[in-house]
Specification:
It contains four helices and two strands, in the order ββαααα. The protein has about 100 residues and is mainly alpha-helical. The chain has one domain. It has a two-stranded antiparallel sheet. β1 and β2 form a beta hairpin. α1 runs antiparallel to α2 and α1 packs antiparallel against α3. The protein is flat. The protein starts with a strand and ends with a helix. The mean pLDDT is about 85.
Length: about 100
């Protein structure tokens, strides 16, 4: 088995993918939280402040998700294929409802 920095490759990929998806979840939680608070603000100025607070990082959140998907494909292609096909089947099922 090959090693990089004393860690075997599957473990290293697991850590990288976990870091990427954790970064996505944390930053997306920030967006969802600002959006949820936005509903309770009465003044337009307060709403604009909430929206402007997330504006600089809004697009960056999806980058974490895309890079995490690419890392998942590079590190564990069978898992990637299984997850994507399952999500496609779920999407088809939901469209029929």
């Amino acid at each position: 088995m090959e090693y990089f920095l004393g860690i075997d490759y599957p473990t290293l990929w697991y850590l990288v993918i976990g870091l990427l998806f954790s970064g996505y979840a944390i930053l997306e939680g920030f967006d969802f939280g600002a959006g949820a608070w936005h509903l309770f603000f009465q003044k337009d100025l307060s709403r604009r402040i909430a929206i402007n607070a997330i504006a600089p990082v809004w697009d960056a959140n999806q980058v974490w998700l895309v890079i995490g998907g690419g890392a998942l494909f590079a590190g564990f292609p069978v898992m990637y294929a299984t997850m994507l096909s399952a999500m496609g089947q779920f999407n088809n099922l939901m469209q029929q409802v």
